[in-house]
Model the fold of this input.
Amino acid sequence: MGSDKAFLELAGQTLLNRALAALRGACGSVTIVGDPAIFANYAPTVADVFAGCGPLAGIHSALTHSSAELNLMLAVDLPLVSTELLSFLFAAAQTNHATVTVPRTARGWQPLCAVYRCAFLPVAELALRDGKYKIDAAFSAVSTHAITTAELVAAGFSEHSFFNVNTPQDLLAAGSQ
Done:
């Protein structure tokens, strides 16, 4: 994208502020994984323990610094995720004992809009130490509760909620939703 996606604007609001509002509405307490020099004015911020190792490293850092059993993760580039969807995922995680509660749509796993128990931390750390950075590959080592497209639809959500902004065209498309 040529710039930090967090500060891109969609409908007059940065992607960061959209994500923070959705998360605060669902769970109240929010921590950003990123550069504290950039993000500390928005919410408590922690840096990656495994810098440069992608989103799995972000999940690892979030869990390393969390005292909560259930941890709702949301990537900043998923601007169509609502507070209601996050609340639905969090409620689903509270009613099962899986280490990860994650949507699985026709597009595959949605690991950057999911709930992770603290028990995922050693699995993430082992994967990162082994140079394995795919989040969903780590799911085979833990109990995973998949939220299906049918369950999402029955609860009033669409898999389109997981629309990811990676290009300027994606940002335009998200704005027309």
